Amino acid sequence: MKLPFKPLAAAASIALLVATTPLSADDHGVDPVEFVNADADRTARVAQQLWELAELGYLETETSALLQSELSGEGFRIEQGIADIPTAFLAEWGEGGPVIAIMAEMDALPGINQSASPLREIVEGKNAGHACGHNLFGAGSLVAAIAIKKWLEETGTPGRIRFYGTPAEEGGSGKVYMTRAGMFDDVDVAIHWHADDENSAAAQTSLANRSAKFRFKGISAHAAGAPERGRSALDGAEAMNMMANMLHEHMPQDARMHYVITSGGNAPNVVPDFAEVFYYVRHPDPDGVEEIWTRLEAAARGGAMGTGTEVEWEVIHGNNPLLVNETLAKVMDQKLRQVGGVEYTDEERAWAEQLQESLGDSAKPLESAGEIGDYGKSLGYGSTDVGDVSWATPTVGVRTATWVPGTSAHSWQAVAASGHSIGHKGTQVAAKSMTLMAVELFTNPELRAAARAEFDAARGDDYEYRSLLGDRAPPLDYRK
């Protein structure tokens, strides 16, 4: 099914009529940003605790418990284990009025770790790290939600602030299961943010994607003494990979496909009877993912047929593309500019300069951390389970400079900065921007109406949500 993308002229014209309030202190004399400033120590403390835990997708037991504890201590009502995911939760404060949601990711990435040093320094015995900054994501969203709660309480404004603890973004699609379970159906607007090496609220879309583990089964034998008796599962996987690599030449320009062999045998002199290869397929449109996926499945069957092995596969995750809402994105851009970027101390600048030596030509001027990127709409080549949320309710995001300029996500340099004061400062920028955005949404019904009009026009009258995961249950063991 092709997701509808319709002209947004009507919604855009509505958006132009929406007046936003440049907030410092509001009509009640309450400055919501001051609540975030006052909680800077909590931002750093929680971010660092999550960084040290570095728990993988669906295994974020201590991480989830920490976030819940902080929120319950502030009077939030907690609902645990939502969407059949033990580490997922919902925390809410307030009554009546609109429901504004803030999402919080929390999982780390496997196979990478680093100390908070600007030089490569592996932490022995640690098999994961926050190379995508989800420790910052969780902490920043937490502090923003608490600041918004305090503002609602101080001003007596009707409304509910809702915090979603969303596990397993990295290949686990936690938010997809939550969307599929209807957890966002009564939300007026959802807000998210992400760690980055720059500050931007530009309207960037994402690629739809799907992943699966392809498992080949063969017959083991002595590789020298009785090779004719063996049927190599690894041969089946490699034959599939060869055909998939040929497929790259015949994919659309904006499509992506990548894989890792997660199991291929243990000894060269034993014909492996099991092999597993883990694939991702991405495309701007879900139909494009489906088309490439059909061909990938054919390559898997061909690899098995040609090597005398068997193959089966398990879909692990799948995300719809991000449906940007420019009505909201333009207002978030205003709020980010009101907050401003990140300023380094002399010590932080020296640390950043030392780390930049490892970035080579990718390094960017350190001053760019204090700047705000131009607003615009573009296609992003990553994928996120926020995409599914954005088809359930109007959604807006922001990215802030938590990493040294020039740093790539999923790198040791990102792990280092995510455990450093540079990361904490960028997190504060995100928390302030989201807080201001939420206050605007609570107090500006015209903005909410305009965002909903754009959202409804983009989805179309005949839109029906479809998950790229099908009806499978959350893969709670995919990182074990």
UniProtKB/TrEMBL annotation:
Upper lineage ranks? Answer: Bacteria, Pseudomonadati, Pseudomonadota, Alphaproteobacteria, Sphingomonadales
Q: Which UniProt keywords apply?
A: Hydrolase, Signal
What's one GO-annotated cellular component? cytoplasm
What region holds the Peptidase M20 dimerisation domain? 211-301
Q: Does the keyword Acetylation apply?
A: no
Q: Does the keyword Acyltransferase apply?
A: no
An example molecular function term from Gene Ontology annotations: dipeptidase activity
InterPro entries, per this entry?
Amidohydrolase, Aminobenzoyl-glu_utiliz_pB, Peptidase_M20, Peptidase_M20/M20A_hydrolases, Peptidase_M20_dimer
Q: What is this protein called?
A: Amidohydrolase
Leader peptide range in chain numbering: 1-25
